[in-house]
Amino acid sequence: MSPDPQSQVLGHLYASALRGTGAVVRLESVADPVAGLDAGELTVVPGFTGRLLATFARDSAARSDRGVYWALAGALPEGLAVGDYAMTAEDKPALAVTKATATAWGGTDLPLLVKHCTGLTVGAVAGGWAPNVVGRCRLPKVREFPDDAALFAALHARQITAAWSSTADPDVPEGAVLLTDARPALVRAENVVPLYRRNELTEAQLLAVNQVAGVLDTDSLTDMRRQVADGADPQGVVDAFLDEHPLGR
């Protein structure tokens, strides 16, 4: 688990699920959770399907929710397994445009960006990851900004046409809209999912881990991430969520 708000939320959420079975759970902050899992230092690591797939099969062409999940399951090394993915909870890269741009393009569907590929200028926060291709549109080199505030200020000042964000980013301002991906997907899926070490969870523990997928959605993930970013205690935020959305009900 890393110190960023989203990792804190997911770490505490899956830990709480396991504690509900009577398990003794210790949260660990490590630089590379997947390596820690593979080395046997960790038992469960929550993450996102697409990012995990890139770790194990970087060249995979899978994009859809189901396709990415099964590609990930097939790419895992011996000893690791993947739990149920949250079909309604994701944090995939998404392009934001101003409402004026969306109106001019005639909507907020991502394929509209492909139709307006020529002349696009795209920005992103420095150090983040963003696709360089969306469908048939090869995007120009992104302009980098130090943070979300500077990125969206440039968007509203029309210094860039679109800004890379994500579907669970709590910092997307009211004046911007995220373009909605299509079917078939143009951007690789990033659904919440747990990896775990085989033969180390009991049947009850694995059931509890998988039940998270049934209660978590993108809006709730975004809200919890916002609360933690604003200084709230991650465990308290997760406890409040589980009080309203009990597992296995």
UniProtKB/TrEMBL annotation:
Entry-linked Pfam families: OpuAC (PF04069)
Domain (ABC-type glycine betaine transport system substrate-binding) ranges: 4-109, 148-244
GO cellular component: ATP-binding cassette (ABC) transporter complex
GO molecular function per UniProt: transmembrane transporter activity
Name of the protein in question: ABC-type glycine betaine transport system substrate-binding domain-containing protein
